[in-house]
Amino acid sequence: MYLDLQLKKKQMKEITKAKGVLYGLAIGDALGWPTEFLKLDQIKSRYGPQGITELPDPALFTDDTQMSIAVARALLLSGEKDIDDIMAALREEFIQWLHAPDNNRAPGNACLQGVANLERGIHWSRSGVPRSKGCGSAMRAAPIGYLYQHDPQKLKSTASASGICTHGHPTADAACIGAAYLVKLALDGTDPQQVVPELLAFTAGISAEFDRAILKINRCLAWEDSHKALSHLGEGWVGEEAVALALYCFLRHPEDYRAVVTLGANTNGDSDSIACIAGAISGAYLGVSAIPPDWIRKIEKSDYLGNLADGLARKKGFFL
């Protein structure tokens, strides 16, 4: 009886965290989509001095969440198998996304080209755009961090493979691995003060450019003006900046999901990707109970996201 109760508690905790990750990223994505391509002064002019603070109606997400869903679905089909099997499932999911009628939400060129290469039969290890270091691989990595929380090497190899199939630059590789690992650290309940050194230890040797972007967080985290700090870190169009900006948003407000994604959405650059990555980290750290319930109700495909999270939690039980 006691063991059954403990198992049930563990399962409920996993579901809470899985929903925190998926709802967290999708809501951040939807909150940041209307402000993507806008400068902060334009955002404030349109939404008021606090910028955007509430989900739009309808609360639609972008290719960031669509591709994250594709990753999650592929992991449900093949997550316990080897990399080639995982990538075979991911190839099929990405091709479905490529041709989906709702793939009309400003998808990135590298994602489109990389998946087109996969469809043409090019192996996933060679299909990525060689010089692309956009954030399109990092934005979709959260489900990998969730499923392989307790297997860091499987996390690293799967994140790397899932990223290089569209983005071939080493800095994008580091960003994708880093984004997945940040979800793992958040699920572990890592002290926020230890996140930067643990992240850099895990991604060591992949990209000095990524390392430099993350280290900039230490220089500006204590600045009073958060928007000055965000400008210092970049605009997020490239992977290293998107991960650095998202991590900054989380570290600035580790106990407040709403503040994390709102800060990410009110940025000068790729606001939806920044808030998406940040939302996944915060959702992993705090769980679904920290996300406003009305936002969960409003987000596009809310029930589907919840069911997908349940599936991921059950799949993760296979490894525990």
UniProtKB/TrEMBL annotation:
Q: Does the keyword Metal-binding apply?
A: yes
Q: Which InterPro entries match?
A: ADP-ribosylglycohydrolase, Ribosyl_crysJ1, Ribosyl_crysJ1_sf
Q: Where is Mg(2+) annotated to bind?
A: T62, D63, D64, D270, D272, S273
Cofactor(s), names only, from the UniProt record: Mg(2+)
Keywords, A to Z, come to:
Hydrolase, Magnesium, Metal-binding
Co-factor binding details: Binds 2 magnesium ions per subunit.
User: Could you state a single Gene Ontology molecular function term?
Assistant: metal ion binding
Report the family membership: Belongs to the ADP-ribosylglycohydrolase family.
Q: Supply the name of the protein.
A: ADP-ribosylglycohydrolase family protein
* Species: Desulfatitalea alkaliphila
